User: What shape does this take?
Amino acid sequence: MDYFAQQAINAVQLGSIYALIALGYSMVYGVLVMINFAHGDVFMVSSFFCFLLLLVLPVPFGAALIIVMLATAILGVAIERLAYRPLRNAPRVSAIITALGCGLVIQNTTLSLSPYSQRMPELFVPVLQHFGGVTVSSLQVLIIGVSVGLMIALDFFIRKTRYGMAMRAIAQDRISVPLMGVPVNQIIAMTFAIGAALGGAAGVLYASAYPVISATMGVLVGWKAFVAAVIGGIGNVRGAVLGAYVLGAVEVFTVTILPSTYRDLVVYSLLLVILVFKPYGLLGRPSVQKV
Amino acid sequence: MMRWFKQPPPRGVLLALLAAGLAACFAIEQFGLVDDYVRFVLITLGINIILCVSLNLVNGWMGEFSVGHAGFMALGAYLSACVSVKWLGWGDPLWMFPLAVMAGGLLAGAVGLLLGLLSFKTRGDYLAIITLAFLMIVKSGIENIPYVGGPRGFLGIGNHTTLLWTAVWTVLTLWAIRNLVYSRFGRGIVAVREDEIAANAMGVDTRKAKLAAFVVSSFFGGVAGALFAHQLQFINPGVFDIVKSTEILVMVYLGGIGSLGGSILGAAAFTILAQVLQPLGTWRMVILPLILVLLMLFRPRGIMGMREFPWFVPRREFPAKEDKK
Amino acid sequence: MSALLEVRDVTMRFGGLVAVADLNLEVTQGHAHGIIGPNGAGKTTAFNVITGIYTPTAGDVLFRGEIISGRRPSAIARGGIARTFQNIRLFRDLTVLDNVRIAHDAHARYSWPGAMVQLPSARRAEQESIEHCTDLLEKFGLVDAAYERAGDLPYGSQRRLEIARAMALQPSLLLLDEPAAGMNSAETLKLVEFLGWLRDHFSVTMLLIEHHMQLVMTFCDRITVLDFGKTIAEGSPDEVRNDPKVIEAYLGQEDGHE
Assistant: This one.
């Protein structure tokens, strides 16, 4: 039982980080109907931003979080501006290919600059607290707290503010919304900024929890978050969060039963099964094609 | 499919050229006319042509986006290696190797059939995700099979991929795909890309068209994988990752979608580029996807997009000369 | 008189929206049957149900006495129902000839492995398809454009090509969705002539949606009037013209409408 509770906490921690990344995939898909394959690598780079920042200037956790989120947001907007915006009216396939290409450029640039994994300096000295047989570190509390806080803030932003409303409007109808005076380009750039910033937060949190970072994290971790977004129903913000926690649990409990080499196999098989039987995810809705 | 200005040469000329080419490959192999490096590059070129034209069937002619081609390669590579090393290792490569390659292709084709079934309902982004999941499943699946070496890889594969075999398979692939593309199935595949609803309304069995495209594409992907394995003599799951798929994508979109000539051009350009960029190490993997992005931004259909060298077009497809106005 | 096509109590619902409600329709062999009605009356939805793009929420579609609703669109097309689309849906990047051949291919028999190894049967079928389709294009006055890209044709020729493509299926029933859309009166008159030729030459039964009253009244043998997804009148052009319900629902707005 203790063991189970311990694993459950680990699952929630992992799920929280996945959720932050998955939100970025899902928001962009919701607004642009495009899979931003590069997002996983944006997340990966953000942990390197954090690493570089701490190398130069040992700032406290909160400051590092904000600086990295800002830097990552700028990167996200830059990718949108340079690579995606020119293709907005091109065939959908072009956009997917470009996104995939951008992700690989980021990944391999990082790999070329840092061929080996880097050991992250400690951002936060965790305090361990024992509850019966279960150990909870203050770092875990922090990770879960920051993630949930950001998610609540995002939910509020999307539902209650003017900008959030504009985002949802564009997601509904990209043809007529611009005619009503909504600055589509700015809203889309903002979506990328927020998505990337959340990925940046995830980068910092991930690097604090698992302090060895490498260029392959975009594929190993970022794409898992993408799987989470698809499982939840890509384009649906709450679905992304749900999918992330489901995936976190699946991963953690898979490893308790099977050797850890089976983790990817199970995750991607799950993705395939979901896509076959529930193609629009747990909370997504199908779109109807007009004839 | 597009306007053409020239007629293909007489049939005899084509056959003679083909025979001369194969004879040259045989001579090179027999008398060692070129050094090992050139031979290696030529074989790589042939394999790349097979990969490019077969992926082009799905990504170009049919207009879908598959990132799973490296997965089909992996299936072909591993099964053919099992046949040639573990099961029929005692056999003479002369009959055993083609058998191994066929086996690899058939396995890939059978799995391609499953992916084709999934493509009935889902298209576009979702199909891309499915192919991605497929790629990851193949890779991590192989990693968990100790029989084929798991993550360490499969060692001791015979060096059976000769220049002649490569040439034979390349010609066979091009010929078969040309015949398919200029048949009712090929037109059905293109109709799916152009307008699936209209295609259905015009009686095109779009399911059959999709299955044909996926099965043929993955079969030849598997064949290429088998040749690849017996060229390198050592394979591991890490070789068949998203980077390998991206390489094939670069060839397809560089040479041109929906074009046999473009596929050859793309494969050739890529093969040369890959050799030139070799000294750059991992930066090579920055430049290749960058090329892909730039292509999408500036020339999304590639050099020969939707056009064809007249030599690859069956004679019947040309306007009859004077007899009919 | 036997009905070639029969639509029985068909209802088509999308979520809460009822696009077609209890539609009944009988198209007699050899007739030209018109469907008219204001925008949003469910005419195109009815076409999509007949051609199998949608499966009706309730009711059946019968063709030659057999239930076809629920079959796949391609099977229905091969069974003898061809159509055109309201906003032309050609295969724009293909040649005019290939557009027609794709529809003609529906009746070819060779298999795809056979095609890949160039079996003689496949070769013969290809040759036959080119000859047959060139002849067809000749009849439609498009043979000179046979090797041009379909998307490059002028608008009028694209409309004609779409009909030629439908006829390449060798259908016994042809569904035309607003064939006169975007045409002026002179062009419409020519279209009536063309449709008459089409009917006589191919002896094909026609079901057409049209807003152009003159065309419908002069060309059609029978007319069904839809409004809000329901049939509100049916009969010969004269009967429909004098039906008070029709005048109220549709013809009353005609002046402002066209």
Chain C has eleven helices and ten strands.
